[in-house]
Amino acid sequence: MTTGSGTVLVVEDEESIADVLAIALRYHRFEVMIAGTVREGLALAERTRPDVALLDVMLPDGDGRALGRELRERRPDLALVFLTARDSPAEIVGALGFGDDYITKPFNIDEVVARITAVLRRTRPADVLPQRPPLRYGDLELDETTYSVRRAGRTVELTPTEYALLRFLVRNGGRIVPKEQLLRHVWQYEHTPPESTVVETYISYLRRKLDALGPPVITTRRGVGYGLA
After folding, report:
1. Cβ neighbour number for residue 48 with a 10 Å cutoff
2. CA atoms within 13 A on the CB side of 128
3. Mind listing where the DNA-binding region sits, in residue ranges (predicted)?
4. What's the 3-state SS for the chain?
5. Bridge partners of residue 54, in order along the sequence
6. Is 116 exposed, middle or buried (0-12, 13-18, 19+ CB in 10 A)?
């Protein structure tokens, strides 16, 4: 049985779905809190400080994506996973712009547990030591204690997944990292989804944030992968 490690805030207004999610997550030894509205979700997150929020997009008193943005502003380290029946590319890309994963309904409960476990694994890496020195590459500096990033001395605000992706590129220096390797090490995918564009999407997010502070730093080897200049 998978052993969970962390607290999950589930914000879902359909009680039957919320119950199934809670039972499955608790079976896998996660602590679970349930909210049915945006207001309840904000209050619970403030009181209990969960490690990951599993958010339905359509809630009775608001939009789950807006809730996710509010939670991320309050807690930059909080992982966000969206759960929704909306599956258009625009919806998915929009949510992944600041979230860490996106699961469509109807869903497989084992997949939900696996996705949450993977998100926590990459946003709270177990191999980080409290006194570990910063990672540096060129004018980039990654603080492994606070998970903060600076470029040319200026702070770069990254989501947990963006940080995990940049850290893996930095650890590989100037080498080109194949897309399949990024999916395995950053997103914990055992089998590469052939249609997945998640790497390209997150590379574009990193470029937008990093290039605003200096020359382009991420290079592309078409048909192969990505690296640092």
Report:
1. 11
2. 18
3. 132-229
4. CCCCCCEEEEECCCHHHHHHHHHHHHHCCCEEEEECCHHHHHHHHHHHCCCEEEEECEECCEEHHHHHHHHHHHCCCCEEEEEECCCCHHHHHHHHCCCCEEEECCCCHHHHHHHHHHHHHHHCCCCCCCCCCCEEECCEEEECCCCEEEECCEEECCCHHHHHHHHHHHHCCCCCEEHHHHHHHCCCCCCCCCCCCHHHHHHHHHHHHHHCCCCCCEEEECCCEEEEC
5. 10, 81
6. buried
> What is the spatial distance between Cα 220 and Cα 41, in angstroms, rounded to a whole number?
40
Angle at the Cα of 130 (from 124 to 133), degrees rounded to 5?
A: 105
Model confidence pLDDT, tens digit, residues 104-154: 888 888 888 888 988 888 776 554 444 567 889 999 999 877 778 999 999
